[in-house]
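Exam prep: given the inputs below (a chain plus iron/sulfur cluster), describe the expected output before reading on.
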Amino acid sequence: MSARNGKVAPAAFPPPVDSPEEFVKSGLDPEDELIEVGVAIVGGGTAGLACANRLLQLLSDDPETLERLGEVPVAVIEKAKTCGGHNLSGAVMRPGPLEELFGELTREQWREEGFAFGEVKKEAIYLLPNGRTKLRIPPPPPQRNHGNEVISVSALARYQQRRAEEAGAYILTETSATKLIVQDGRVVGVRSGDKGRGKDGEPLGNFEPGTDIKAQATVLAEGCWGSITGAAIREFDLADGREPQVWELGVKEVWKVAKPLDRVIHTLAGWPLRIPAKYHQIGGSWIYPMKDEKTGEDLVSIGFVIDLDYADATTSAHDLLQQFKTHPLVRDILAGGERVAWGAKAIPAGGYWAMPKLTMPGALLVGDSGGMVNLAALKGVHYAIKSGMLAAESIYAALRRGESSFESYEEAVEESIIGKDLWEQRNTRQPFSKGLILGGPLINLMIATKGRFPGGRWPLHRNDAQPMFVGPAKDNYPKPDGKYIFDKLSSVFISGNATRDDAPNHIRIQKHVPREIAETWRWMCPAGVYEIPDDAPEHGEVDVIVNYTNCVQCGAITAKGGRLTTPEGGDGPLYQVL
Ligand SMILES: Cc1cc2nc3c(=O)[nH]c(=O)nc-3n(C[C@H](O)[C@H](O)[C@H](O)COP(=O)(O)OP(=O)(O)OC[C@H]3O[C@@H](n4cnc5c(N)ncnc54)[C@H](O)[C@@H]3O)c2cc1C
Ligand code: SF4
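Solution:
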């Protein structure tokens, strides 16, 4: 490899994008050219839909405030074909917030509705010293799952969508919000994206221009990475004085299995990762049992998560999951089964210190948009629901009093389980940057003392500042056989991805970069979007081909030197049980 191997970081090749310029619009169009709603919620995932449902519950007893919100009191703008289409999680959920949101529903009814699959009664955690053996350890406190519920967030979002629509929400699916509209220093709504543009941005025969959606309150519930959220954070300096956000990437499969799994399983660090600090591969896996109440089928959710701070450019979450499946622990569970679903998604992993300020004039951030994930526990669904509910309550209280500040939401989050849990885990992730061998004992101390020792504020380091080298991770990935081990393209195929072949490119990267950076993108992308031409030089700068229509919008590229911008509404995967 070249002399630069291990010396170039993706941050030196920033994506060609000017976030405030491209994603913030100054002022609204004339009244007769816009749509007016009461509250605009960008993102119909768990957080956005919890906000819509809670708001409509509160408004149902208050006709006066409801009337003040106009003909469309609550609108949810979702880019997927249906709510849930772009949502993916492990997903073992802490049940409290969902029980609070739909108090009349029992957990038995969750299962009848098809989004929940059973309570966790047994669990096991393993360290994998190598590809053959396993070592069972007692679950550390954040990973105890007894009493939690295995769910599908895509199915939960479909259920929440139905409930919100029944309660009077207007849900605009296949619609991307592409700009935040700011007027006199206040967010006054969002602009929906154009539809029907060609590869070079030219209008096609079916072209439909976007529209300004004016709102009294705007809720940004875009999930892990959102173009509008990013622009809002910059426009209103919401990340000032915070640590930089960092990310992990998870790849998931759902299998129909011959015999039911009776426990939730996690593996930590260890095989197939290279844990010495040089490679900086940190991650883990999950295997969860699912039971489809309607068909009676036994299913298993299996996934691998990798910290995007790694240094070996040939690290691939997709291939690590395939490799993980070759361990006898996994083979025994999946034997005789069939893969029925696949997907990938990034997770905000910085925790407490990386959370931006959650309010700005006219708007709020909820769920993953606000960085509300407890990485030590791999839990964010219950925070997404709780933050959506708290946002609804702050908005309702302000509108009822005829006020326009939603600042009370900051304190409500801080005082809720979200603020309390994340404060306790505030320094749990940072020691990973020392590698697992040095960092592991520190992490255990942080967990045991609930963040009090070694205390202070531990810094986070940007994922794109990590120098990359072309290392040996790729040498051990198993060859696809199309039955048990899969390649990236067959995985994308079953994700239901339906991006138009002639859609404009929504991925921004520099297209002529050192080989180390190009290899990073090629291996990292779970959907095989980035290609290096066969005749490219072995060293130095190479061209990168971007097959953006394969993109499943996981968001990982944003962590490693590129940018996922909002594609045309309706494009991307259509997840059903992830
Ligand atoms: C691999 C993985 C495993 C996980 N495992 C667990 C687990 O076991 N337990 C747990 O509790 N948590 C887990 N989490 C975390 C949890 O899934 C998330 O914290 C939670 O789902 C976030 O919900 P959200 O509504 O904030 O975001 P999302 O679910 O991402 O929803 C955001 C929505 O906004 C839409 N959107 C985004 N931008 C726009 C736009 N501009 N215009 C229109 N629509 C837009 C998206 O299409 C999407 O539907 C996991 C996450 C991952 C990725
Ligand atoms: S191109 Fe799409 S699927 Fe690939 S890493 Fe980027 S966001 Fe994820």
